[in-house]
Amino acid sequence: MKRQWPSPTFLRETLRPPRPSRHPVRDRVDRATSIEDLRDIARRRVPGVAYDYMDGAAGSELSMARGRQAFRDVHFHPRVLTDVSSIDLTTTIGGAPSALPFGIAPIGLTRLLHHEGEAAGVRAAAAAGIPFALSTMSSVSLEDVAAAAPGARRWFQLYLWKDRAASVELMSRASEQGYDTLLLAVDTPVGGHRRRDVHNGMTIPPSFGIRDAARVATRPVWLANFLTTEPPAFASLKSFPGSVSDLITEMFDASLTFDDLTWLRSVWKGRLLVKGLQDPRDARRAVGLGADGVVVSSHGGRQLDRTTAPLRQLPAVRQVLDGTGAEVLVDSGVMSGADIVAALALGADFVLVGRAYLYGLMAGGEYGATRALTILEDDIRRTMQLLGVASVREITPDLVTLG
Ligand SMILES: Cc1cc2nc3c(=O)[nH]c(=O)nc-3n(C[C@H](O)[C@H](O)[C@H](O)COP(=O)(O)O)c2cc1C
């Protein structure tokens, strides 16, 4: 091979000097090609106490790990030579359209992660045309979330408190504000043992000792927002001198039974989903008592540790509910669009994402949350094309096995 000196033009074009950026955060978020990339950015932008609150789970975090592992254990069986030039990602959930086959799961205290919290999340969901579920433990009020994105499809997640009248009041506010679906969380009779929060001495709102303060100072953007906006706190609850888990144990009604579901069905007139069950017998019972559907979920591994992955329970739940008209949703462990396609193939009508969206929110607020949703959307589309299916309806069980 004949050697030559590189020409100045070649050098100029090949070795581009870094250009100063006017939006360094956005540039970094734009370069993220996966939820894991957003997670790396998030870890560098948010202090440990906040990062661990969202990234962590209960006990030895086995339920969380299993939830994610199950998705990795899925094998796809692609079909070829089908026309995949145009892909339809839309679906129907609860009788209304969704632009994508997934929505945002309810998350408590989102403002701890990013100062705009749920307001940023609901705007990202509205722009993507997908439902946004607001938690009872939200850090932005349900009225303010409605005002932040009036066009968004909004769901409300209910924890039944010992103070039943307060729960009824919350439901009627949600109904007035146009939240069309209630998700009753049934996996929180007490709080899971979230060891990272205990180690970090997490309180709500957060407070920092001298040692923590030095560490928090390494996250200056988060700190500046924390110091110059309302401290993150529950919008519908008084502040609490302990972790979220302690609060659950203190406030929530551990005596709840299926009779309370019957009661709730008579009070809430909209669509009702029971969130956080894993056993097909519980799913059948919930639907028998009037629930319109279930969310098969381990709460992202934040409650009972050592559970089976919800994805593994999904086919059995689907089977017992076939013919009832009830809808089956699943969450816990979704980190990619391929995971969402796998869940649909294994029997889900719809999927909820928690941390996958939160990593984006922490990485870059609304912009980052939108990036997370786009990464998931692009990945669903690409996976469907490579699988040989052109619409969500065509994603059928024969396309996967779960090893
Ligand atoms: C930081 C955090 C807070 C959560 N808060 C709530 C909550 O207030 N209510 C609820 O029903 N589920 C809550 N969840 C569980 C989610 O709704 C969802 O079930 C879970 O995040 C799904 O798992 P994934 O994070 O692996 O997607 C929370 C999850 C996280 C990560």
Describe the structure.
- With 403 residues, the chain is α/β, with parallel strands linked by helices.
- It has one domain: TIM Barrel.
- The chain has 17 helices and twelve strands.
- It has helices at residues 8-14, 24-31, 35-45, 48-55, 62-72, 117-128, 142-148, 164-176, 195-200, 210-216, 220-228, 244-251, 258-267, 280-288, 310-321, 337-345, 355-387; strands at residues 74-76, 91-93, 96-98, 102-104, 132-134, 154-158, 181-185, 271-277, 293-296, 327-330, 350-353, 400-402.
- An eight-stranded parallel sheet has the order 4-11-10-9-8-7-6-5.
- Helix 15 (310-321) links the parallel strand 9 (293-296) and strand 10.
- The longest helix has 33 residues, at 355-387.
- It is globular.
- The model has no long low-confidence stretch (mean pLDDT 95).
- Bound molecules: flavin mononucleotide.
- The site of flavin mononucleotide has 24 residues, from helix 4 and helix 17.
Fold blueprint:
Layout: H1 8-14, H2 24-31, H3 35-45, H4 48-55, H5 62-72, E1 74-76, E2 91-93, E3 96-98, E4 102-104, H6 117-128, E5 132-134, H7 142-148, E6 154-158, H8 164-176, E7 181-185, H9 195-200, H10 210-216, H11 220-228, H12 244-251, H13 258-267, E8 271-277, H14 280-288, E9 293-296, H15 310-321, E10 327-330, H16 337-345, E11 350-353, H17 355-387, E12 400-402
Parallel strand pairs: 4-11, 5-6, 6-7, 7-8, 8-9, 9-10, 10-11
Antiparallel strand pairs: 1-12, 2-3
Bound molecules: flavin mononucleotide.
The CATH architecture assignment turns out to be Alpha-Beta Barrel
The average pLDDT is: 95
Oligomer designation: single chain
**Total number of helices:** 17
Largest sheet: spatial strand order: 4-11-10-9-8-7-6-5
Low-confidence stretches: none
Please state the CA-atom Rg, rounded to the nearest Å. 22 Å
